[in-house]
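Tokens for chain A. Residues wanted.
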């Protein structure tokens, strides 16, 4: 009889511990899972027949070791899946596609054929700023790897994005997560993490300003250009709050402002997006129409205020939004409700993903969502 137990091999970094694995730590449907960070044990001792690798590799494969490892694991396991939980919609690991059964991402291009293209700066938006604003990098990073056949893109599925995870941001909690994990593994994580940040109704901010405290200095030139460009557009504009403040003051301010501007970082989806929604603020963000993701908090004119990548409508849309309390309340309420629906349906989502990985059919009940 084939075993339905799944071994999860993961890298115990912040994103993986507090977000990518969060549904597995907390879901009632996360049964038959065996967690490990020990690759040697996986290769030599694991008796399970299904393996999920989460966030294990970093960067591109320079010497073929990643491919050789995946090939050897594929030969051992009946089913092999990989969850790339890096920031961008693009991926450094698409050359693994021919050697896995499933490949998960936090967000995917709606048009999967885009994964066969080379983007300047390795991001679809960095390519945009190179093509339209002449932004260059020296040296320019080489293209990302691609699958051998475009048909392999059919193996790419959505898991969940960082909306599912631990909030608010806390350096102490991050340090504690690392220590608890080192001491007692997944048992410590299930004790540390909770759903208490999802309230019954969204908070009601009182300050008619748009918070725009984001860093633009820690990115490559083409990747960080959007942030630099937006900072210049809003400089000294009375509707925006900018500059750096301590984290505790930053979190308090998030609960007070009516809107939060969240440009892309290394990827399109940022912690600021979720912080805005949890605090009852309206998320203002460069258009996300090129992506599929779950939870889908990015429905233009329904759950967030979409602005163009060139920022030409940023000031006008922000001013109009801040002067329209009914629209602000509608957008913030819709986004908060969408997040509530996601948490309510998390057990079903986990079951669906685990059934896919095991290779069995799953017909989950319909979960309420916004139309």
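Reply:
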């Amino acid at each position: 009889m084939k075993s339905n137990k799944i071994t999860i091999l993961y890298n115990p970094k912040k994103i993986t511990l507090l977000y990518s694995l969060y549904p597995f730590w907390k879901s009632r449907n996360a049964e038959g899972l065996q967690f490990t960070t020990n690759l040697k044990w996986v290769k030599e001792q694991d008796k399970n027949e299904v393996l999920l690798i989460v966030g294990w590799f970093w960067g591109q494969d320079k010497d073929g070791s990643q491919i050789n490892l995946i090939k050897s694991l594929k030969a051992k396991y009946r089913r092999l899946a990989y969850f790339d939980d890096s920031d961008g919609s693009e991926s450094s690991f698409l050359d693994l596609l021919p050697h896995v059964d499933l490949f998960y991402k936090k967000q995917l291009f709606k048009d999967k054929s885009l994964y066969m293209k080379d983007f300047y700066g390795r991001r679809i938006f960095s390519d945009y700023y190179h093509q339209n604003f002449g932004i260059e990098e020296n040296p320019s990073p080489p293209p990302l790897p691609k699958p051998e056949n475009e048909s392999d893109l059919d193996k790419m599925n959505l898991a969940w994005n960082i909306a599912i995870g631990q909030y608010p941001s806390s350096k102490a909690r991050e340090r504690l997560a690392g220590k608890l994990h080192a001491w007692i593994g997944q048992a410590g994580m299930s004790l540390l993490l909770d759903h208490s940040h999802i309230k019954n109704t969204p908070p009601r901010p009182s300050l008619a300003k748009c918070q725009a405290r984001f860093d633009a200095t820690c990115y490559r030139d083409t990747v960080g250009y959007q942030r630099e460009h937006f900072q210049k557009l809003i400089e000294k504009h009375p509707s925006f709050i900018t500059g750096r403040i301590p984290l505790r003051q930053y979190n308090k301010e998030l609960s007070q402002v009516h809107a939060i501007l969240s440009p892309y970082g290394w990827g399109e989806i940022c912690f600021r997006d979720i912080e805005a929604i949890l605090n009852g603020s309206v998320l203002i963000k460069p258009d996300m129409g090129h992506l599929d993701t779950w939870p889908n908090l990015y429905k233009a004119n329904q759950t967030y205020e979409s602005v163009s990548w060139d920022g030409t409508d940023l000031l006008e849309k922000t001013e109009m939004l801040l002067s329209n309390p009914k629209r602000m309340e509608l957008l913030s309420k819709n986004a908060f409700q969408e997040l509530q629906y996601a948490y309510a349906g998390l057990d079903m989502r986990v079951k669906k993903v685990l059934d896919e990985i095991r290779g069995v059919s799953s017909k989950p009940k319909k979960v309420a969502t916004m139309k």
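The chain has a mean pLDDT of 90. The two ends are 43 Å apart (CA to CA).
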